[in-house]
Amino acid sequence: MTVLLLKLAGPLQAWGSSSRFARRGTEIAPTKSGVIGMLAAAKGIRRTEPLTDLLGLEFGVRLDQPGQILRDFQTARSLDGRHSAPLTYRFYLSDAIFLAAVQGDAALIHDLAGALKRPCYPLYLGRRSCPPAGPVSLGVEDIGLDDALKTWPWQATDRYRRGAPRIVQLEVIRDARPGDQDTETHPDEPVSFDPAHRQHTWRSVLRRHVPVTNDLAESSGVIDHDPLSLLGG
To answer: Which one of 3.40.50.2000, 3.30.70.2660, 2.60.40.790, 1.20.120.520 gives the CATH number of domain 2-77+86-213?
Structure first.
C-alpha cells in the first residue's frame, strides 16, 4: 500500500468534530474530516464539489507532541456599539505536533503529495486562524499505514525529546478495521463540506500505543521511566 505522511505542526491547531454555537472545542488530535478538508483545499476542490476520490482514504495519526489546551474568550460589538454578538469560547491546541498518515491508491496518494507542495487554497490546521509552521508533506512511502506510524522518526521538538526517556510510547489513533476490538465512534467521517448541507457520518477508531526510540535521551542523561522495575516486574 502507499502512504502519504504529514507533519501537522504550528503554534495553534484546532480540530473540532462536534463543535456547535458559542463553544468551539478541539479534539486532542487531528480529525479525519479536518485532514481530508485540508487535502481537498490543496487539490482545489471547492466545498460544494463532491469528495469522490477522497472518501475511500484510510487515516491514522500519531500524537508526537500532544501540546496544551488553550482557551480563547471572544466578544464582539457592532460598529455603533449598540449590539453585542454572543460571547464565545474557542479552544485550541498550542505547541502540538502530530504525524498523520493517509493510505490509498498509489496514483491518488502521489497526486495529493504534489498538491500539498503547490496548494490551490491556503492550508490550515483545522481552523483558518491556524496555519502550519512549515511544509506539511513528509513524502510518500510504499508501506502500510501501521508500519509508517510505527517506524517513522519521532517528530517532537529537540527540547521536548531531551526531557523524555530513551523509549517512548506514543498514542496512535487510526480508522478501525473489521475484527478490531475496543473501538469507539465519532462523528468524523466526511461526506460533504457543502455549507448548505454539510454531512458527516460516524467513524470507528482504534487507539493504541507504539514504542518509538528517542535518539536524544542519552545526550540529556534521562533515565528510562519504568516504575514496575521496583516491584520486580
So the answer is: 3.30.70.2660
